[in-house]
Write a structure and sequence with these properties.
Elements: H1 22-36, E1 45-54, E2 57-59, H2 65-75, E3 79-90, E4 93-105, H3 110-120, H4 134-139, E5 140-144, H5 147-151, H6 155-164
Antiparallel strand pairs: 1-2, 1-3, 3-4, 4-5
């Protein structure tokens, strides 16, 4: 998007608060990250978290190969939602929002899912896939919403939040 930035990481258990809607879960996880990172005067922090929802269940990052296969089997041949929460924070101010994209996969063969997991190791991705990787190229047959949201950072939402973020 043309911004210069410094990447920071935080070691955080990504546990959402109880009783939240999926949209609120994504925002809550982004907010938790934003609150866990120390910032100084004049800095603007951007944190995001992406979740995948199928049958009202949240699919997090798979712990291992079997869990990744299970997730891909669940999304094969059907639609699911990808929701990314974004939180901008400066000292004393913050604003959060979310983007939702509906993604549909064609029916995947077991051999395709196994190849993808073995070659791409999607253990750091909610729902066990990256739309920008091989499985997305051959498996996703339609989306409704922001492609960049599914990649992990909904750029249009970030731009909108930046426009609404109060000047310091």
């Amino acid at each position: 998007m043309g911004f210069s930035f410094v990447q920071r990481t935080v070691d955080l258990d990504e546990i959402p608060a109880e009783g939240l809607s999926p949209n609120a879960v994504a925002e809550d996880l982004a907010r938790q990250k934003a609150e866990a990172i120390e910032i100084t005067e004049g800095e603007l922090l951007l944190c995001a978290d992406t979740i995948v929802v199928v049958d009202h269940d949240l699919l997090a990052k798979p712990a291992d190969r079997e869990e990744a296969l299970s997730m891909l089997r669940r999304i094969s041949g059907r639609s699911h939602q990808v929701i990314t929460g974004v939180c901008l924070r400066s000292l004393g101010r913050s604003i959060c929002g979310h983007a939702l994209t509906k993604v549909h996969f064609r029916e995947l063969k077991e051999s395709e899912m196994e190849y993808y997991i073995d070659e791409f190791q999607p253990f750091d991705k909610a729902g066990a896939y990256g739309i920008q990787e091989w499985i997305g190229m051959i498996g996703v047959d339609r989306i409704k919403g922001d492609y960049y949201n599914v990649v992990g950072l909904p750029c249009a939402l970030v731009y909108d939040l930046l426009q609404r973020f109060p000047e310091e």
